[in-house]
């Protein structure tokens, strides 16, 4: 990576720009909001939540002042409930399904109520979940993102001796290193990880499986293994100039932002972000909030086809981001010295024929080349699948799209000792989906190792009923 440029706004202003967009409710606000809920029978909000948290139950407990019980109902179904309260796309999940959205044109603020209850126990350092009596069996969990943390939690509750292997220095996966800073800081996800640790789960941070410890060693050390390794680096643009200084992977830039050491974030004055998923939106909005003067989102299709959620798009518009629709980069232009980025050469595109999935291809418009001046180019074209990693795990297969193949009920892979879940299986969705898969995997591991079926809160609804509205990061 190249040397960094300085950020443009004074630190105090940046701190202001990164204030939470959905701040905590006051006690009075929470009580008012909880009392608006009509406690639906067979509540649609619970169905819409991929972890099927019993929403009316936790809201009712807030209304009656039982915050501990409320948090217990949340964490029982989703051990990363404090994170999800902040980062879930509630507009298309629980709040999107809330009957009050139709009746009163204003859904109950489920996300912020969930935050209210879970913040209470995190702030008080209370543990609402208990470890089970040791059952003499051991499981290795690879990756400490939402999938790994959740799987580890349920296994500890069943009495397993659990070790989490994490190549990064902090636990939490993308919850810690990827979420837009105005949605959530690292404090929340690392506190949730600490709660998992207090259940007796061991964390081996800075340990990369496949490099620092082999799969054979892992298999020998544990009765079962869960793979929650997520996805890889952002895909290449495969255009000339991609190696120039000033071209970055969006995840690298966002990770620097998450450290809150603003001076280390590699941004210039004019930033071009390639891609239009939620990660691209996170990159453009955060670049603006750091002070980049001109921030452009470059996408080869039109706004109707962008993978980002509508509300994320609205956020970017509010942040005065420029959108270059039907535009594809063909070259990163170098400065006079030949080393640094000076701009992005682009072509206009037009819609082509629909492909097998019904999505229209795009084709370049002849003679439409134009240059966009930029001193920073950020690639946000989606994370790659970790095909090579999985090729080295005996018996674990991936499908043609690079997703790990599992039994959808037990999350068991083709290798009976290995289970998998999260982004590496679903190709990249939301934290809450990864959490649900971690839960199902814990049940599957328990069934495989003991023959006993358990069912944790919110585990029953089959996966295909979930996540219908979800879009890609
Ligand atoms: C920029 C960005 C923003 C996002 N924003 C949102 C959002 O606002 N809301 C939302 O719900 N979702 C969001 N998502 C999606 C969400 O982050 C993922 O769906 C979720 O984190 C997937 O969880 P996971 O556990 O499968 O993988 P990850 O969170 O990626 O965790 C995988 C972990 O495995 C570790 N690992 C990988 N390989 C190894 C190895 N060999 N040895 C040891 N450890 C290893 C990694 O370091 C990582 O910690 C976002 C994603 C991105 C990229
Ligand atoms: S759908 Fe809305 S009103 Fe009904 S239980 Fe859920 S939050 Fe309450």
Topology, element by element:
Elements: H1 11-17, H2 27-36, H3 44-48, H4 55-63, H5 67-77, H6 81-87, H7 94-97, H8 99-103, H9 110-124, E1 138-142, H10 146-157, E2 161-166, H11 174-177, H12 186-197, E3 202-205, H13 215-221, E4 224-227, E5 247-249, H14 250-258, E6 270-274, H15 278-290, E7 294-298, H16 310-318, E8 322-324, E9 327-334, E10 341-354, E11 360-364, E12 370-373, E13 376-379, H17 387-391, E14 418-420, H18 423-426, H19 431-450
Parallel strand pairs: 1-2, 1-4, 2-3, 4-14, 5-13, 6-7, 6-13, 7-8
Antiparallel strand pairs: 9-10, 10-11, 10-12
- Strand count, sense and closure of the main sheet? 5 strands, parallel
Tell me the helix content.
Answer: 25-40%
Which ligands, by name, code or SMILES, are bound? flavin-adenine dinucleotide, iron/sulfur cluster
Percent of residues in beta strands: 15-25%
Mean pLDDT: 94
The low-pLDDT segments are 462-469
**The CATH topology of the largest domain, please?**
FAD/NAD(P)-binding domain
Radius of gyration: 23 Å
- Strand line-up across the major sheet: 3-2-1-4-14
CATH level 1 name of the largest domain: Alpha Beta
Strand-pairing-aware structural class: alpha/beta
- Distance from N terminus to C terminus (CA atoms, Å) equals 23 Å
Fourth CATH level, the homologous superfamily of the largest domain = FAD/NAD(P)-binding domain
DSSP strand count:
14
Q: What's the architecture of the largest domain in CATH terms? A: 3-Layer(bba) Sandwich
Q: How many domains in all?
A: 3
- How many DSSP helices? 19
Shape, principal axes of CA atoms: globular
